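User: Thanks for the earlier help. One more: Peptide methionine sulfoxide reductase MsrA. Can you show the sequence and predicted structure together?

Assistant: Of course, both are below.
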Amino acid sequence: MNLLDLFARKTRMPAPGEALPGRAQPIVEPGLHFVNGHPIAGPYPDGVRTALFGLGCFWGAERKFWQTQGVWATAVGYAGGETPNPTYSEVCTGMTGHNEVVLVAYDPAVVSYDDLLKVFFESHDPTQGMRQGNDVGTQYRSGIYVADAAERQAAEAARDAYQAALVQRGFSPITTEIVDRPPFYFAEDDHQQYLAKNPGGYCGLGGTGVSCPIGTGVAAS
């Protein structure tokens, strides 16, 4: 397979019936957050909500969110594909359809969903399709996975506002998918809070340098 064929394969979602079969049982038992000691799978304190984002390699993406004030816990995992309970190596083949995503548990009295959307858009380039920088493949696509109509409305409004700002700077159209939240599968323990465990590790994120012009109030979405 030449490089062009490999690029085409990695950037194409698997057709129906092509996805790897996966397994019925989870591959990991989620533990405690390496940075703050909170349980990454809950139980969460009363009032804490969760959000789900994909913005390239989940190592660097997760750090962006755990460094955000008001975020109670973060976890990396896989979502948006067909294979149940996939492994990292399976996701990397491009044959599960999953994206590398970050689960964000946050206190909406401190940080709003709009605030998280601002972190999301300013932490990567959402115009690149099935890639993020040098990382190529369906697992690196830009995605916002919404839990309800309010999140969808906020995500679409943020996308449209940021698109206008990007057009003024000569960027291509935003390719971020905004879809109903799919099942989330926790990634293996060595991927959780990877850059806290490996401070010199690969990050892979690079934003556009353009500020996302949306509200940053503290009200819950």
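User: Great, one quick takeaway?

Assistant: Residues 131 and 140 are 5 Å apart (CA to CA).
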